[in-house]
Amino acid sequence: MTYRMFMLPIFLMGATLTAARGDEPKPMPQPPSDPNIQIQAHGPLHEAFAQPWQKDANPSEAVPKRPPEPIAEEPPDQRPAGDNVQWIPGYWQFDPATKDFMWISGVWRNAPEHRRWTPGYWTDTQEGFRWVSGHWAADTEPDRQLVPTPPQSVDNGPSAPTPDDHSFYIPGTWFYTDAGWRWRAGYWADERPGYSWVPAAYYWTPEGWNFTAGYWDWDPYHRGLVYAPVYFGGGIYLRPGFVWRPYFALSIGGIYDSLFFRVGFRSYYFGNYYAGFYAGLGFRPWAIWGAGWHDPLWHGVAFAHAGAGFGAGIGFSAGIGAGIGGVGAGIGFSAGLRASAEARLAGKEAGPARTLAEQNRAGAGAHALVASPSNLNGVKLQPVSAQQRQSFAQNAHTFTNHSVEMSHTTSQWKIQGNNFHQNEQHFNQGFNQGFNQGQMMHQGQGGNNGGRGGNGGGNGGGHGNNGHH
Fold first, then answer.
1. Per-residue model confidence (pLDDT) at position 291
2. Which of 29, 32, 46, 250 could lock 107 by a disulfide, CB 3.0 to 4.6 Å apart?
3. Whole-prediction pTM value?
4. Inter-residue contact 393 to 86 (CB < 8 Å)
5. In the prediction, which pLDDT does 31 show?
6. What's the average pLDDT block by block, 10 residues per block, for the chain (469 residues)?
């Protein structure tokens, strides 16, 4: 007999939890009856949905515990509408509070234009197990476009004021060319309604640093459908025939007023991370730090809320830092998010429950992150046929197999007696001696020291890309 459990989806498509006036209260979603399945109202967002920008690329933190093998997971029976919606499978992530792994459930993702998902994986190093982040590679890029360790960023924000209320700042980037590293300065660019710009980035791997050029992604309200993390106790996922199908959901309001960065990590975190313990681990509230970090998710939400006063100028970024520019007026939405985050950090306002079970015990008046699909308005879903489910599942299986293969292959570095720093030094020396010469695309140095770039423009730089880099 096949063992299946289900979770409600996290909708990030403009859905809300507010019922129309006069509507009857809807029942709270109930957790699974098996105590070994614990639905979480906190944890990392699936990295295929969104990743924060890092000024300086860093390898992930090594953890001492071996991650389990990926579990059997199948897509839900409904998916969001969209021309290129894909099912991206889940993966394990390490929770610093419990010092154990939680499962980050798969995600329905409206893929960025001309991009394909390259999944992340765990690799075993002398220092411990490190997560190699997945990324959206351009169709014209190889899965692994490896370069030596990039220099530290010299970007200090825009050198010129924002040109208008419809501009945003793209931070400067190092590009590796046939002549070595070249700096491309940051610049102001025009917004593109319905989209959010993701800057060029470098991702650590045991073999070198993986480069991906900047690109336009869908704004956060049209990217797809993310699912809640889960803790599995008692080895339940090891039982014969166990298959996990996500089913439990989070409100979009809960995401944005309880969203966090973690310094040095490539994941957003949602939920109650307000305690001082988490600040010591590098957690920073998105509502306070988003604008100053040139965050792509912040930009997408800001432009989407421009008409509702998400904030601009003094109202948007006062005390946070420059970088986003215009985007509406007044303090509006962003000020409310910031005020709530500051009150929770100070202990003046309670944070959300950390699990579905805790949320249900708190009652209907509590700040709820988890909701049933019937409580979410404005979400357009369509059924997934048996044939479609099989196709999505096969594609997901390919992703998972790729992750497992990369994990096993790259972990051979440890077996061969190399540690992380030795691998990095060895790669840099070999690369700079021409080990990968001729494989990179070169378009010159470029840069305009804070000037203006249009939607189809870009400012040169190595590796090549249509538009910005």
1. 74
2. 46
3. 0.82
4. no
5. 62
6. 44 33 44 85 94 90 94 90 92 94 95 96 94 94 88 92 89 94 95 93 93 93 88 93 85 77 91 94 91 81 66 31 34 78 92 88 76 61 91 94 92 57 48 38 35 40 41
Q: How far is CA 95 from the centre of its chain?
A: 16
- Which of 124, 205, 204, 209 has its CA nearest to residue 418? 124
**pLDDT for res 205:** 93
Tokens linked to 52: 């924060």
Structure tokens at 166: 């419809």
> Under 8 Å CB-to-CB from 167, ≥6 apart: which residues?
188, 189, 190, 191, 325, 326, 452
pLDDT at 373: 56
**Closest residue by Cα to residue 386 from 25, 55, 77:** 77
